[in-house]
Amino acid sequence: MAGPGFRGHPAGPLLLLLLLLLRQALTEGPLVFVAVVFRHGDRAPLASYPTDPHKENIATLWPRGLGQLTREGVHQQLELGRFLRSRYESFLSPQYRREEVYIRSTDFDRTLESAQANLAGLFPEASPGRSEATWQPIPVHTVPVTEDKLLRFPTRSCPRYRELLREATEAAEYKAALEGWTDFLTRLENFTGLSLVGEPLRKAWKVLDTLICQQAHGLPLPSWASPDVLQTLAQISALDIGAHVGPPRAAEKAQLTGGILLDAILANFSRVQHLGLPLKMVMYSAHDSTLLALQGALGLYDGHTPPYAACLGFEFRRHLGDLDDNRGNVTISLFYRNDSTGLPLTLKLPGCPAPCSLGRFRQLTAPARPSVQGIPCHGSHEPATPAATVVPLLSGAVAVLAVLSMGLGLMAWRPGCLRAWGGPV
Hints:
The two termini are 42 Å apart. The protein has helices at residues 4-8, 12-28, 58-61, 71-87, 109-122, 159-169, 172-180, 182-192, 202-216, 227-245, 250-255, 258-275, 288-298, 358-365, 397-407, and strands at residues 31-39, 101-105, 281-286, 311-318, 330-337, 345-347, 356-357. The chain has 2 domains: 27-156 and 251-368; 159-250, no CATH class. It is of the alpha/beta class and 425 residues long. It is built from 15 helices and 7 strands. Strand 5 and strand 6 (345-347) form a beta hairpin. Strands 1, 2, 3, 4, 5, 6 and 7 form a 7-stranded mixed beta sheet that branches.
C-alpha cells in the first residue's frame, strides 16, 4: 500500500499516520487515557560569557530576553499541537473541554507560552487568526517555582541525592573521562573568560548552549568554536547528565526525579478509571531536564538531549482480549517524537514487549518510583520523609473533578526537599 506512488503523494505522510493509528487501534484496543510530556520550543540562550562577541547586542538579538521563547519556538509548539490533534482526532472532542484535558506547566515564561502555543495547534478555537468572537483561551495550570516538586530536578538541597551524585562523580570511569578533558577545559577558559576546570560541568554546558543557540539563529561563532569543540562539549554534557540520571543507583536517583512524575502519571490514570471520570489527557509542558529524568526512570536514556518540542507520550489502551501474562486488560504504549519530519518512535520499556501490560509496567518501574514509605531525600542513615496522604475524595462528580484538578500531577508527590537541578533549560 505504501508504494512509491503513495509516498510521493502530498498527503502521503498523513495517510500513513492515519493507517498506522487505525492498525494500532485494531490490534491494541481502544484508547482510554493519554499523558504527554514535552519540552518547550526554541528559546534564546540562557546566558552569555565574558568574551562572547555578541554580548553587547543581546537586547537587539534577543528582544524578549535571554531564555525566552522565540518565534521559531512558537511555531514548533503549534506544529506539535497539530500533530497531537491528528493523532487523537477520534479520541478528543473537536473543541476543548475542561473535563477532558488538563494542562500543567512549570512556572517559566517559555514553558507557559509553549503550552499555550501547543494548545492553539491542538484546539481550533485557540488557534491564531480566530476572530475575537470565536477565540477561546485555554487554561494552563502551574505552581510557583519553589513549590514545583513534580517537573524539576533536585539539587544539593536533597542530602541523599547529593550522596548518589557524589558516588557517580567519584567513580573511576567518570574521573578518567573528566581528567582527559582537563586540557580542553583549560583552553576553553582562555577562550571564554570563564573558570571551568574543577567547576560543575554544567558551566561548560552553558557555553555549549549559548553557542548552539547563536548558531541556530544564524549568528557567526568565534573561530575557536569549531565542530570538534562543540562535539567535545556535547560529550562533557552527556557525562554530566549520565551522572545525574544513570548508574550507579539509577533507580534510586529516579525516585528523587523522574520517578515522581512517572508515579503521578500512573496514579492519575488509576484515579480516573476508579472514579469513572471523563478526563482523557494530561499534558505537561516542561524542560529537557524533565524529559531526561523521565527517560532515566524508564531506563530509556540514550545519551542524547531531547531537542526543542520533543514529546514523550504514554498511551493507555483497553485490551480487547485476555493478556498473556494475566495482569489485567490495560496496556501502555510509549512514543517519543523528537523529529517533526517523521513519525514518532515507538519505545519499548526494558523487559516488556510493546505494548506492555499495565501490571507488568508497574512491576518493572516500581524500583524507580517513590515507595509508600516516602521519598528517601535524607541521608542514607536518616529515615525517609513520610508519604503524603492522597487528596481526599469528595462526593459528587463536580467536586471530585475539582479535587482531581487541584491534585493532577501532585497526587503522587510525597513531601521531600526537591528543587531544580541547576535550573531548568
